[in-house]
Amino acid sequence: MNSSSTYHPLADLMMSPRANSAIVAIDDASQDAVTWLQFTQDVASLTAFLQQRPEARWAVCFADSYHFAVALMALAHSNKHIILPGNHQPAALAALADKFDALLHDAEVDAIAGLPSVTLPLANADATDITFRSLPLSQCPVTLFTSGSSGTPKAIEKTLAGIAAELDVLEQVWGEKITDSHIVSTVSHQHIYGLLFRLLWPLCSGRSFSRFDLIYPEQVVAHASANITLISSPALLKRLTGMVSEQSFRHIFSSGGPLPHPAALQSQALFSCLPTEVFGSTETGGIGYRQQQQPTTPWQLFPCHQVELNAEQCLRIQSPFIDGIDWYQTSDQCDLLPERQFMLKGRADRVVKIEEKRISLVEVEQRLTELEWIDEAAVLPLDEGHRLILGAVITLTAAGEAQLTAQGKGKLWLAIRQQLRQWLEPVGIPRRYRAVDEIPLNSQGKRQFQALVDLFAE
Questions:
Q1: Domains in the chain, please, with CATH?
Q2: Cα-flanking dihedrals φ and ψ of residue 389, to 5°?
Q3: Residue 220 gets which letter from DSSP?
Q4: pLDDT at 1 exceeding the cut of 70
Q5: Up-side HSE of residue 33: CA atoms within 13 Å toward CB?
Q6: What CA–CA distances, in Å, run from 164 to 85, 109, 112, 158, 254?
Q7: What are the tens digits of pLDDT across the range 299-311?
Q8: Of 14, 50, 54, 79, which residue is the least packed, with the fewest Cβ within 10 Å?
Q9: Residues 192-209: pLDDT tens digits?
Q10: What is the 3-state secondary structure (H, E, C) of 321-353?
């Protein structure tokens, strides 16, 4: 099944017969490289240390992806429960403190008062004779967090078995295409997409990866090379407007949210590479993928999935990526097509009731972006007094900016509402608007619900 002779399943990764000098990770700033020998020694030292610790649940928070990889493998080989908070912010970590017993982190991440913490690299770490054995993956628990629709972190329980199954399929589908390329990323390893694509897949397949995120569009352009694969998100790819590059990437992956078709074409023009979008969730892992030649390009199911639709036309999925559930019910409304393809139609959980009428927030956003004045739109329900209304956060096109300058906000909002009446019932037309330069997104390309709400509280 695996396309590369250097690929080793996650269960047996630490027993890989890999050359000691093989490069695992590179610090792009200093060009210092970490070898396979150093990696195995670091994992062994930390495993020996953790096996002596009584704490069972360890939160893993690192800015450095190499240290994160060492911590993850050592925790798995120490029979510990791996907890992956969504970010490193002190208040966010403190809010989750009841979910873990201790914190593994690096110097970039602050400890939490009252909780045991261990900083990597270990001071006075002993070289040890730890013998690695095959991991019982289904007995290696991992907890990830997703923001959900409310913005409150929601714990998603998985095991390394489901994660390992997905790694095998990633190598099956794309391994030959990105053979021997170096991996750079704009997304965090703390989330499922980054964990898989920027960290564990390179580790298992013998590809080197960069230790730190690329944050700015200029950094992405500077790293373009035929020997480099970029792991990114719509949040970053949309910011490449006006950039110039004489180099191409080997491949570009995008996930975390919908990639606008103009951004896909922009990446193709800039890097001679049309991004591969991956659709899925923390709960399901990857479901499908596509390269967006047209906005209507359908999605292709991963080869191991079985799918069907429920009465509401929402996707049900049977997948080895999902632990212990025969069929998983999503809220993604789809049309199933021949050749194991599908079209996404929106989410059923983005339907709200206003004055007893069901309103699709996805449809309202679609109608807004069909107007010549609006580039992107995020629509959300707002409590106003004792009634529910819709608010719209929008980014304007050049025509919209000109209209705003000429007429002012009040007249532009009125013109938008008048245009929407062609398609939407009055209760489904947003009553309040906020024009912004960019829709608030996190590093994974997900909309920040609370940030959207806060725009209307001002």
A1: 10-165 (3.40.50.980), 214-348 (3.40.50.12780), 355-457 (3.30.300.30)
A2: -130, 175
A3: H
A4: no
A5: 12
A6: 20, 28, 31, 11, 20
A7: 999 999 999 999 8
A8: 54
A9: 999 999 999 999 999 999
A10: CCCCCCCEEEEEEEEEECCCEEEEEEEHHHEEE
Cα–Cα distance between 413 and 404 in angstroms, integer? 9
d(CA 300, CA 280): 12
Q: Give the helix, strand, coil percentages of the chain, each rounded to 5.
A: 30, 30, 40
Tell me if 82 sits within 8 A of 140, measured CB to CB.
yes
Q: Give one DSSP letter per residue of 119-185, joined into a string.
A: ESSPTTPPP---------GGG-EEEEEE-TTTSS-EEEEEEHHHHHHHHHHHHHHHTTTTTT-EEEE
Tell me: cis bond preceding 121? Omega within 30 of 0 counts: yes
**3-class DSSP assignment, residue 21:** coil
Measured in degrees and rounded to the nearest 5, phi and psi for residue 181 equal -85, 155
Task: Return the sign of the alpha-carbon dihedral for residues 34, 38, 40, 42.
Answer: negative
